[in-house]
Write a structure and sequence with these properties.
This protein is of the alpha/beta class. Helix content is 47%, strand content 18%. The chain is built from 7 helices and 5 strands; from the N terminus they run αββααβαβαβαα. It has helices at 3-22, 47-50, 57-65, 84-93, 110-115, 126-138, 140-147, and strands spanning 29-33, 39-44, 75-80, 97-102, 119-122. Strands 2-1-3-4-5 form a 5-stranded mixed β-sheet, sandwiched between helices. Strand 1 and strand 2 form a beta hairpin. The longest helix has 20 residues, at 3-22. It is globular. The N and C termini lie far apart (33 Å).
Amino acid sequence: MERQLAGRWLTAAVEEARAGLAEGGIPIGAVLYGADGAVLGRGHNLRVQEGDPSLHAETAAFRNAGRQRSYRGTTMVTTLSPCWYCSGLVRQFGISRVVVGEDETFRGGQEWLARHGVEIVVLGDPECVAMMREFVAANPELWNEDIGA
């Protein structure tokens, strides 16, 4: 995938992450794009806001995309490397590519996904890194709860 396009797509996921943070939640955002580049669904981590441990950013975007006949050729764009739970979602439904805003603060299951044929594009976006580092420093207990530590 062209990195310039991946960076443009990341912008919408960053908007979602900021929305989650503004709501008092964890600043992780995601957008699911169709093979044609159309936005299928977008969302942000809602674990705190909804009191639902399953509402990670990727699952919110996936749910908001609604039922698709196939997820082949789709791209999940996320501000942070997907956890094992969200990596399982990508693998289960055959999402073809994951664009990761940053993987410095958390690495998740991206190597596992790559070994199973999912294209992984890591952008190392400075805004994503800064947003997560600031959040983790200010909210270590909430962060550890989110990642299952």
